[in-house]
Amino acid sequence: MKRRDFLGLLSLVAAGVSGPSWAGDVPSLMLANVYRPGVPLGDYWLSEKYDGLRGFWDGRRLLTRGGDVIAAPAWFTAGWPAEPMDGELWIGRGRFEETLSAVRRQTPDDNAWRKVRFMVFDLPAQPGRFTERIQAYQTLVLQLDRPWVQAVAQERVSSHAELMARLDHTVKNGGEGLMLHRGDSLYRAKRTGDLLKVKTHEDAEARVLQHLPGQGRHTGRMGALLVETPDGVRFRLGNGFTDAQRDHPPALGEWVTYRFRGVNESGVPRFASFLRVRPDALR
């Protein structure tokens, strides 16, 4: 797949407010921050965080978060509207690798794509607040009437304890986590506290710069990755890899997702552990 430069991102500025732009191949998307206790939960809508690949329909093409064109079968997007849709390509809980395998094929496999759903969670071009956009995307999906295009359900939660109980239930049943979206927020093409991910652990993404040689039982293969975050912080990522992944590590330039527990004073993630290659990361 093609790799786009992070600097290729475009943004639209109107009346001093950042908005989405579709002038280039890389879509300008609303990105989430991490939930922390103390957030006024009554202001937010709650939905499941689907463990799939971000998909952006620009009115003509289905794109990854990084701007690569997804080679979906013609029937999958037939009849889709000219209006942009933001969503997640998803097969089911705990089936990320299967989703990745289907979506990354340059020649689409019909049998694999029959399992994929496009979970629509926003309409970036709609000017209204998110509470209004919920009704708009639900109505659009209903009118589209394609079983593989589904509207993400939104509901309310009243307290941190209730939120944690919902998170625990979701994770125990194979889900990745939850999302909170402020009801009065506009669609802003940036990372914002209007959108929050709620997970049992923190995770982030970094780009692979170098394969560092292993020692001991890992002599002759990758021992760690030297990676760099979007903020320019470099660190060694050496935990969480299988033997097969050490034999065939992520390629230089690829983005990976890692888990961690906070950061130290220099910004380096603490107890970082490799989770997976993230081909749809912001590149």
How are the elements arranged and paired?
Layout: E1 12-14, E2 17-19, E3 31-34, E4 44-49, E5 53-57, E6 62-64, H1 74-77, E7 85-90, H2 96-104, H3 110-113, E8 117-122, H4 130-144, E9 149-151, H5 160-172, E10 177-182, E11 191-198, E12 202-213, E13 222-228, E14 234-237, H6 243-247, E15 255-260, E16 273-277
Parallel strand pairs: 3-11, 8-9
Antiparallel strand pairs: 1-2, 4-10, 5-6, 5-7, 7-8, 10-11, 12-13, 12-15, 13-14, 15-16
In summary, what is this structure?
This protein is an alpha+beta fold and 283 residues long. It is built from six helices and 16 strands. The strands form four sheets. The chain has a five-stranded mixed β-sheet with strand order 6-5-7-8-9, covered by helices on one side. The chain has a five-stranded antiparallel β-sheet with strand order 14-13-12-15-16. Strands 3-11-10-4 form a four-stranded mixed β-sheet.
3D architecture notes:
By secondary structure, the chain is α+β, with helices and mostly antiparallel strands. The chain contains six helices and 16 strands. It has helices at 74-77, 96-104, 110-113, 130-144, 160-172, 243-247, and strands at residues 12-14, 17-19, 31-34, 44-49, 53-57, 62-64, 85-90, 117-122, 149-151, 177-182, 191-198, 202-213, 222-228, 234-237, 255-260, 273-277. It has a five-stranded mixed β-sheet, with helices on one face. It has a five-stranded antiparallel β-sheet with strand order 14-13-12-15-16. A four-stranded mixed β-sheet has the order 3-11-10-4. Strand 5 (53-57) and strand 6 form a beta hairpin. The longest helix is centred in the middle third of the chain and has 15 residues, at 130-144. It is globular, with a radius of gyration of 19 Å. The termini are close together. The model is unreliable at 1-24 (pLDDT under 50).
